Known about the structure:
By secondary structure, the protein is of the alpha/beta class. Helices cover about 30% and strands about 25% of the residues. The protein is built from 14 helices and 18 strands. The strands form four sheets. The protein has a seven-stranded mixed beta sheet, sandwiched between helices. It has a five-stranded parallel beta sheet with strand order 12-11-10-13-14, sandwiched between helices. Helix 4 packs across helix 5 and helix 7 (about 275-280) runs antiparallel to helix 8 (about 290-305). The longest helix has 20 residues, at about 290-305. It starts with a strand and ends in a 13-residue tail after the last strand.
Amino acid sequence: MHEKIIILDFGSQTTQLIGRRIRELNTYCEIVPYNKFPHDADDIKGVILSGSPYSVYDDKAFKADLAIIRGKFPVLGICYGAQYMAYTSGGNVENANSREYGRTHLTQVNTNDPLLKGVHSGSQVWMSHGDTITKLPASFQVIASTDDVAAAAFHIEGEQTWGVQFHPEVFHTTDGTQILNNFLNICGYKKDWTPASFIELTVADLKEQLKDDKVILALSGGVDSSVTAVLLNKAIGKNLTCIFVDHGLLRKNEFETVLKDYEHLGLNVIGINAKDKFYKALAGVTDPEQKRKIIGKGFIDVFDEEAHKLKDIKWLGQGTIYPDVIESLSITGTVIKSHHNVGGLPEKMNLKLVEPLRLLFKDEVRKVGIELGMMPHLIKRHPFPGPGLGIRIISDITPEKVEILQNADDIYITLLRERGLYDKVWQAAAILLPIRSVGVMGDERTYENTVALRAVTSTDAMTADWAQLPYDFLAKVSNEIINKVKGVNRVVYDISSKPPATIEWE
C-alpha cells in the first residue's frame, strides 16, 4: 500500500481543495469523513483536519475522537480543525464580533517553527470563519497572529501538532503551498506520488486483481472512461471489451470520430447505434431528473443486452473518479442531481466492479492520460455529461431538436478551436432553449428557436466562473449559427457563475 496523508472531512467546502493541493505536491492523500479514521494506520504519515460549516459549540457540530491521532501522527488542523483541537483541550472558542472573512496578513511569525519555515510577517492569508480562539490551552503556543486574530497559528508543545485559523489550501493564501509542503516535510513523506508511479502501481494491481478474468467497460468518449480503458488494456489486453453506445444525444459526428480514435489506441470496441430506442423512451418528457433516469435506464438495458452476447465476463470497468467517491461518502447527504455513472448495473449483471481511477481528481486523470501517450485532443476534451445533449435541450427531446443543437454546438466548438480558445475554457456548451422569438431574415418575419452559449473557467468543476470570451468572437459564433442553422434566429450568452448556477442548465 502507498504511504498517505489522511484528511478528515468536517464538511468544509474546501476539503477537496486541500486534497488537490496535497496531491500537487506529489503526495498521496485520502479524504475520509471526520468519524471514519482508518483502522489500518501502518501507511499513514500524517493527518489534516478540515474546516466545517458549524461552530465547535453547536449541537450539530461534527465531533471526532482526537485521542486516536494526537501524539501518534503529525497533525494539522485548519480553521474548524484548529478551533476543535483548542476547544477539546480546554481552550475557549467564541463567536467573533464580526465575521473574519477575506484577505489579511500574518504578523509576529515564528520563522523558527518548522510549519512556518520560509513564511514571513506580512504574508497574505485567507480567513473564513465566524468564530475565533479567545484562549489557548496551556501547552498551545502562538506561532503567528494577524491584526485581528491573536492565535492565527499555533503549535502544541511536546507534539507534532499544529493549527491554523486561516485556509492554506486556497489560492489567496500566498504561502499556503509552502505551509502545506512544510507539513509534509514534518510528516517525512517522500513526495513520490506521480502519474508515472500511479500507472506502474495501478497496472501491477490490476494484473493481480483481474488475473485472466474478462472485463467489460462502457465507453462514453470522455476523458475518464478513455483513460480507464487504456489502463485496463495495458494490464489485461484482449480480456477487455469496450462498448460505446450512441444514444442519439452525442455531438455531431462524435460516434464515428470517437470510434476511430479508439481504434488508434488498439482497444477492442463494439459500437452500438441505439438512437431510436432512446428517442422513443424520451418522447414528451421535459423533467430533467426524469430525462436522466430514462437515459440511465436505457443505457443499462442496451449495455446489458450487448454484454450478454459475450461469454465469461466477470468484471465491469467504470471511470469513477475521486470527486464521485467523496460525494458518495458525503457527511451531509445532499444530492444536487443524480450521477450518471451506471448505478445498478453491477448488481443486475452479477459483476464485480473495477475502478482504476477512483483515487484521482480530474486534473490528475488528464496527467495520467498524457503519461500513457494518449492523443491530446482526447485528454483535453471538455467534460461532457453522460445524458449528453438530452440535458442541453430544455424541453422534450425530438430528433429535429437534436439536429438543430448538434449543428449549433458544432459551429461553436469548431470556432473555439480555430480561435485558440478551446483549451482556455473548462467547458463550453450550446443549449437549446424552449423559447421562440420573432426575427427578420431577408424581408421575411421569422418565429424561431433561441440558442444559449455557455463557457466557464474552472479547475475542478466545484466552482466555475463564466468565461469572458471576446465580443468579436461571440459575434462571429452568433452570425454563423443564425445564418447556417435552420430553425435558430437568436443567440444569447450565459454569464452566470457556479455557485449559484450550475455549469449545465439541467
